[in-house]
Amino acid sequence: MSSTTEDAIVAVWRNESVRLLAGLARMTHDLDLAEDLAQDALVAALEQWPHEGIPRNPGAWLMSIAKRRAIDGFRRDEVLRRKVALLGHELEEGEMPDLAAAVDYIEDDVLRLMFLSCHPVLAPDSRTVLTLRLVGGLTTAEIARAYFAKESAVGQRISRAKRTLTEVGASFELPVGEERAGRLRDVMQTIYLVFNEGYAATSGPSWTRPELCLEGMRLARMLAALVPGDPEAQALQGLLEIQGSRLAARADAEGHPVLLEDQDRTRWDQLLLRRGLAAVDRATALASSGTPGGSYLVQAMIAACHGRARRAEDTDWAEIARLYDLLASGAPGAVIEVNRAVAHGRAFGPDAGLAILAALPEGALAGSHLPAGVRGDLLHRAGRHREAAAAFDEAASLTTNAGERELLENRAVACRSDEVSSDASVSTGSRQARPPLD
Predict the structure, then answer these.
(1) Distance CA 29, CA 162 (A)
(2) Does residue 319 or residue 102 have the better pLDDT?
(3) How is residue 177 annotated by DSSP?
């Protein structure tokens, strides 16, 4: 198989697999069977497309193959004869439709699958990992890294979750009323995690996985439309769209990561930014009218502060620090504290940020590169270049993403360069201004 064909198949699978799985799950009411059918369709594509070429509508082709395999299976099972008639009728309707037409209400299928995997019969952790696996398309290894957990444990958790849903006969229909409200927070958290995995990939050669960001934003819009009176759902849409507007600017022409303060803001997607800010305004208005907002609203307000700054130096870091304080008081956690350290470091000087990092509990975020990376940034801004270089080295050794590792290694090199320059300045009795970094 040529690399071009293989790349094309991989791209098609990334774009279509979630919708394929969602549609098959709705039709079969069996997650394991839906996954098996989707995998069968992928195997068929790997066997046939290199010789026959990629079909005009690859998504519909995959769905057609999966449905044919489903029919073959149903025919072997007398209990499921009714499904043979249903699927067979669809296949006899002549010209192959596109994927959207092949699966009724396909947009709802993905959201339906997400609500199913957030079923209350599952433990909160199981809901999230199952949704990330089924809807986010993340591998078990990627989920394990995101949660600092063992891959085998995550795999077992996913298997148990699917078995539990089967045992309780969980409905594949969208929940309504109180049942929907009860699952809403878990669904939002999962959409947020799917987006974040795309925005800063836990592994792989690229810093970002834009397809996951796009999927996260699409799901967030659908959810916001489903519950227009929920400020958190509106805020989530705003948060993801504002951050998503920066995707193109997060890498240079060679694909190297570019930090927020160095980004060319003319490359931000202005349509996404406007839509995101409008969603934040809706969320704020809802919260002001008496429907309480939460952590997504505060995060969206922080993102809006960045989004409204035309230049990096226009950023209202004091307001962002205040919002992070508010976030930490309502949703405390080590990741929030690390981000709060960044904000306080910018607003009130690097020592303020370092003090927040120093207060982290021992072992917090063990194995994560985040605390060391932020410590390196703050130390560099404080002129403690040697310590900063060591911190960036530590962070680079911990990240599993190649793009991020390159960024951190480069920052360590820059710190050592500044250390040499600083020593030379001292020896000649002169003092040069420290160049802005990050």
Answers:
(1) 12
(2) 319
(3) H
